[in-house]
Amino acid sequence: MSTILDPKQANADMPFLPALDYKQMNGLGLNEIEDDTFDCVLVKGTVDAMLCAGHAGRENALLLLAEAYRVLKPTGIFICIRYAGGE
């Protein structure tokens, strides 16, 4: 397994890394974050995991998406990476 982006390993091959601000947060409660704050929000695998938890998981997934939308700048990018196996 290799790391593509690692903010602790900035070097000449990736000069853009120091300019990035990485945050790992609980997407269900971003109360301390103001509206229209982020240029990009990345959600990886979280929605799939939530949807496996039935009705409560669906409600949490909707809350996560609402919070992501709220903290994303109007010109921001939302990236949701998920695995949806075919049946």
Features:
87 residues; 2 helices; two-stranded parallel ribbon; alpha+beta; globular; 28% helix; single chain; 2 strands
Q: Could you give a quick summary of the protein structure above?
A:
This protein is an alpha+beta fold. Helices cover 28% and strands 20% of the residues.
Question: What would your notes on this structure say?
Answer:
The chain is of the alpha+beta class. The chain has a domain at 33-87. The protein contains 2 helices and 2 strands. The chain has helices at 46-51, 54-71; strands spanning 38-44, 72-81.
Largest sheet entry: 2 strands, parallel
Order of helices and strands: EHHE
The low-pLDDT segments are none
**Mass-distribution shape:** globular
Separation of the first and last Cα atoms: 29 Å
Structural topology:
Elements: E1 38-44, H1 46-51, H2 54-71, E2 72-81
Parallel strand pairs: 1-2
